[in-house]
Design brief:
Helix 8 runs parallel beside helix 10. It contains 14 helices and 18 strands. The protein is α/β, with parallel strands linked by helices. It is globular. The protein has an 8-stranded mixed beta sheet, with helices on both faces. Strands 11-12-14-13 form a 4-stranded antiparallel beta sheet. Strands 7-16 form a two-stranded antiparallel ribbon.
């Protein structure tokens, strides 16, 4: 029976590939497998929308997860997407289950409560600082995994030294041994993304993190050699998005406030608004309080075009909601316009402070030196690498869509997945 292991590196960039080729475990993938060098993600290139598109093969307006966060003007601390029920269509894992395959998903976003045999989702709130993360896993994870492993590895989820990747890897290795390698395994690593946010996209610390991931991948391969079915396993390494170094920063709601579209009290608390900017990190969503007010819509559009025409603001792109839908499959009740920098730029939705271009680009600060959320075709893109007996050797596809990944992985397992917007990369399949 065909088996599949997907090793996802959050923020894997095309520029990482040359260094990965020099590492002992990743090297096998390049020497014996095939590569899609530039994978264009969905828009915005944020983690949760991209992970949902990887598994569904459809754009965000179809699967229904357009952002990491459930954005809300009135509640800037609204929760993140986390539950499988929030995805509005079939996923690759659903198709695998329908075809009688056993499934395992570890630290994959928006998978809480999914119909997966061995499921430990990315479910703990991003800013949670307490010592009881079990409360978030229970009822959303496979109880058998919690009973069997949580006591042993939960210390990786608590305290200053917590490390989600360590938790994930220990689970993956034990599951391969104890359950004789489920047919389909998704294993997601987070730390490459964190290092790039804090330190920039190309430096010694990034290379150090890639070496850690190389070791982890080698352990997965060795575990499958010892306890699984190595000869019939296809390995896939993929990223969810790239990252870019941030060259500019703008607190766009301060600009909207300055021009009368937002009103606050003397404590900078929101009182009323007509137009509001939600940050998608390196792009911004402009929401109108009354989307049916055509006069307001035209006034805001004219304002955005005037800002784009002024080079001091570095706005390179302004899309209407119709253009975002047609060009990128991006649709949300909270989008009336989408804006993005000419040079790579991050957007803040703060209402506090007075400095429109407040600098916070400091090494070691999370989400400070580099980020994502930008247009899919902008550098840096991500990549897809596959290796196994059903994968040809040496095929390099220069560029392709993330929407092709789910149906390609289905083909590698010998099953069909319909209803996707993507097509399989048949050039690499034998």
């Amino acid at each position: 029976m065909n088996k599949l292991v997907v090793f996802c590196l959050d923020a894997l960039c095309t520029l990482d590939l040359e260094y990965m080729k020099t590492l002992p475990n990743f090297r096998m993938m390049f020497e014996k497998g095939s590569l899609v060098k530039h994978v264009e993600p969905v828009y915005p290139t944020l983690t949760y929308p991209c992970h949902c598109s990887i598994l569904t093969g459809v754009s965000t307006k179809v699967h229904g997860v357009p952002h990491n966060e459930i954005v809300d003007v009135e509640d800037p601390q609204a929760p993140w997407y986390s539950l499988r029920s929030q995805i509005k269509c079939r996923t690759f894992m659903d198709v695998c289950k329908e075809n009688g395959l056993t499934t395992c998903s570890l630290t994959w976003p928006v998978s809480g409560g999914a119909n997966i045999d061995y499921n430990m989702p990315m479910i703990v709130p991003i800013n949670y600082q307490g010592d009881d993360p079990y409360q978030f896993y229970v009822n959303h994870s496979t109880q058998e995994l919690l009973d069997r492993y949580y006591w042993k590895y939960s210390h990786y989820l608590i305290g200053e030294g917590k490390n989600l990747d360590e938790f994930t890897m220990h689970l993956a290795l034990d599951i391969i041994e104890d359950y004789q390698q489920p047919d389909v395994m998704l294993v997601k690593m987070c730390d490459l993304d964190t290092v790039k946010h804090c330190e920039g996209i190309d430096n010694d610390l990034v290379k150090q993190q890639l070496r850690k991931h190389d070791t982890q991948f080698g352990l997965l391969v060795e575990a499958i050699k010892r306890f699984g079915d190595y000869e019939n396993t296809t390995f896939v390494i993929l990223g969810d998005h790239g990252q870019q170094n941030i060259e500019r920063h703008i607190n766009f709601n301060l600009l909207l406030k300055e021009h009368g579209f937002i009103q606050t009290d003397d404590q900078n608390r929101l009182v009323d608004w007509q137009a509001y900017c939600h940050s998608a990190s390196m792009s911004g969503w402009i929401e109108l309080k009354d989307p049916n007010d055509q006069e307001l819509r035209q006034r805001v559009y004219d304002f955005l075009i005037s800002v784009k025409d002024d080079p001091k603001y570095n706005i390179g792109y302004v899309f209407t909601k119709e253009e975002a839908d047609e060009r990128f499959g991006l649709k949300s009740d909270h989008i009336d316009f989408v804006i993005e920098g000419k040079l790579p730029m991050s957007f803040d939705s703060t209402l506090a402070g007075k400095d429109l271009f407040e600098k916070y680009l400091k090494p070691g600060w999370h989400h400070s030196l580099a980020s994502h959320g930008y247009l899919p075709f902008r550098d840096e893109t991500t990549a897809f690498i596959a290796c196994g007996k059903h994968v040809k050797e040496g095929v390099v596809i220069e560029r392709g869509s993330m929407l092709n990944e789910a149906v390609t992985m289905a083909h590698l397992l010998g099953i069909e997945m319909d209803g996707t917007e993507g097509v399989p990369w048949t050039e690499m399949i034998q």
